[in-house]
Design brief:
The protein is of the alpha/beta class. The protein has one domain: Rossmann fold (3-Layer(aba) Sandwich), CATH 3.40.50. 41% of the residues lie in helices and 9% in strands. The protein has helices at residues 5-30, 45-52, 68-73, 78-85, 119-132, 151-162, 210-225, 254-261, 267-277, 283-306, and strands at 60-62, 109-111, 139-144, 167-173, 202-206, 231-236. The chain has a six-stranded parallel β-sheet with strand order 2-1-3-4-6-5, with helices on both faces. The longest helix has 26 residues, at 5-30. The N and C termini lie far apart (51 Å). The structure holds thiamine diphosphate. Thiamine diphosphate binds at residues 39, 65-66, 114-116, 143-147, 174, 176-178, 243. The site of thiamine diphosphate (TPP) has 16 residues, from strand 3.
Length: 321
């Protein structure tokens, strides 16, 4: 896939913004400034960047407990997301949901979801609604390798295939479902092989290469828009940190961890080298993008810290009780 300079830099910028958000959130949580649980997306940025670069405003995404990257890549507001992590009134859910329930329906972010595998059939519902309304938009379900062992995955693929729904299933195989590697939880070599059971295309790509992810997504999206039904794209990646902040990840092989974080494998460092090597961009241009991301996330933190707490009398508003 041949990309313009603008497209390449846009992929890079999305990845850098996600990494900056995640690493800042990690620091803030370790400093005791954030509550709740945080499942970081560091290391997986190429997937959200590649997939969402193929989506328009009308297309929808359904996300997971590890959703910050998806939300940033789909155009979510980092100020409101950071404020939500701080539990502030200006957050996406007035500080009542925290990290795992961020939604922005107006721009197709149907919602993050703390229930593993739950977003997969929800994406089918969205896809059905889009088609019912006569749109040629698609619904994307992001989910992990662990989620692909749940019944919701299999039922959703079967239904989407049978009804030819415009759903794009993006499996983020980051090496672990909590502490369990996929090889200990499933008998197929590539999780994409499961697509064959439902008569739909399935492909496995390098999930640390935003261009490979973008190309595979384009194929799936074109097919879905044309009414030809769903596809399964497995993106192989590696989560840099533990399952959540606080998990020491003792189950990771330190050598393997080192290999995945190296400059030839980390999605951002590798793409940087490629952009410079192919003379698409100069190092200084990339540094300017990184600085912009640092400024943006710094401003989001300042916004969150200077925002008011929700008023005590609103405690039971907009929540199930
Ligand atoms: C239905 C359900 N079962 C168990 C959990 C607890 N849980 C939270 S995340 C997780 C692992 C998910 O692994 P995977 O789908 O591979 O996503 P990843 O965390 O690797 O991104 C589990 C078991 C849950 N939240 N929901």
């Amino acid at each position: 896939m041949k990309l313009s300079k603008k497209e390449s830099l846009s992929l890079y910028e999305t990845m850098v913004r996600i990494r900056e958000f995640e690493e800042s959130a990690r620091t803030l949580m370790l400093e005791g400034k954030l509550g709740g649980f945080l499942h970081l997306y560091s290391g997986e940025e190429a997937i959200a960047a590649g997939v969402c670069s193929e989506l328009g405003d009308e297309d929808c995404i359904c996300s997971t407990h590890r959703g910050h990257g998806h939300i940033i890549a789909k155009g979510g507001d980092v100020n409101r997301m950071m404020a939500e992590l701080y539990g502030k009134d200006t957050g996406y859910s007035q500080g009542k949901s925290g990290s795992m329930h961020i939604a922005d329906i107006g721009i197709g972010i149907i919602g993050a979801n703390g229930i593993v595998g739950a977003c997969i059939p929800i994406a089918n519902g969205v896809a059905f609604a889009l088609r019912y309304r006569g749109r040629d938009s698609v619904a994307v379900a992001f989910f992990g390798d662990g989620a692909s062992n749940r019944g919701t995955f299999h039922e959703a693929l079967n239904l989407a295939a049978t009804w030819r729904l415009p759903t794009v299933f993006i499996c983020e195989n980051n090496g672990f479902g909590m502490s369990t590697p996929p090889a200990r939880a499933s008998s197929v070599k590539n999780l994409s092989e499961r697509a064959a059971a439902y008569g739909i295309p399935g492909v496995t790509v390098d999930g640390n290469d935003p261009v490979a992810v973008k190309a595979a997504t384009r194929e799936a999206v074109v097919r879905a828009r044309a009414g030809k039904g769903p596809s399964l794209v497995e993106c192989v990646t590696w989560r840099h940190h533990g399952h959540y902040i606080g998990d020491p990840a003792v189950y990771k092989d330190p050598e393997e961890q080192k290999r995945w974080l190296a400059a030839d494998r980390d999605p951002i460092l590798r793409f940087e080298a490629r952009l410079v090597g192919e003379k698409t961009a100069k190092g200084a241009e990339l540094e300017a993008i990184r600085q912009r991301a640092r400024d943006e996330i710094g401003a989001a933190i300042a916004f969150a810290e200077s925002s008011p707490d929700p008023a005590p009398e609103t405690l039971t508003e907009n929540v199930y009780r």
